[in-house]
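User: I'll paste a sequence; please echo it back and then give the predicted structure.

Assistant: Echoing your sequence first, then the prediction.
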Amino acid sequence: MTNSYFSKQLSSITEKGNLRILPKVKECGYEIIKDGKHMLNLSSNDYLGLAGDTALKEEFLSHVSPGKFSFTSSSSRLLTGNSGEYDYLEKQLARLFDSEAALVFNSGYHANSGILPAVADHHSLILADKLVHASIVDGIGLSRARCIRFRHNNYEQLERLLSENHRNYEHIFIVTESIFSMDGDECDLNRLVELKKQYGNVFLYVDEAHAFGVRGERGLGCSEQYDHLHDIDFLVGTFGKALASIGAYLICSKEIKSYLVNTMRPLIFTTALPPVNLQWTSFVLNKMVYMNDKRIYLSHISRLLREKTDKLKSNSKSHIIPFITGTADSAVNASLYLQRHGFYLLPVRPPTVPEGTSRLRISLHAACTEEQIERLVINLNTCKI
């Protein structure tokens, strides 16, 4: 394989309008500065607007000193990297979720790409929603289990698959997201729990990456909102979005936690998170549970945008609102148009989304003002696609 091979592949990607480059941007509070232009950042996952909260960062730093934290763990958790901050954070999470145990990972990608390969073997069947995140898809690919992807939120098909297969496998894993990352719609958690409870060998795996912090009275996600904290076997969430930190968690039983510590490769063979990051996560988590006013406001401006924008072709029920343009080129052009008008919205193209559904992924945060939402509505309605 030579460099000419890669050149040909890059040419093919470019011809399809899907070439990606790493953007050179600077964050300034809730704005992005690019080529000297200030734009409202609507492409991050900072749903509560905490990443730009200077007062919050200053409060945290006032409680720590160089002698009380470390910028590195220098080791995996099974060697010397399992700092006391890990134990504190995992117990904190278990208390909040009223769970037997919690397990913290380096990222959502680590969690989703590592849990299923550890727990699902060739005696298992994975039934995954067609639109689950790429990290889950990669985890399924690394497992030894058979997988069937059911049509997005099609629970009649899922029910049929469970009925046909539950006697043929030792375990079946239903895998979904609570709020889907590209479309902003929800799974029917009530229906999924009901289906799971009909069979003794079915586990439910729910990724709450885009719901943690923004749903439920304490921000624990859709599982809290719909009163299913105790009905989900593998409850995954991340700290790198609404919580303005880094890492991910799993809420589970003590047995599952112990099993993963012994078998999950992305946990065993990676350097642990730095203690200072874990301290920051614990600090923000303590604050986040009392930020229901931010959650209510985020829901309000999300509804405002959905109701007033004429060209939306989506079933979004959340703060993630896709502005679907169709082709990759049209998504790029729409992105440039909105950037000229002060909104940093990046195009999302295949293979991230299916062909013909390229879009701008509008990711609202609680620091947006109603005036900014009104301006965004005007510009979306006048954007040519």
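Residues 183 and 193 are 22 Å apart (CA to CA). The first strand starts at residue 26 and ends at 28.
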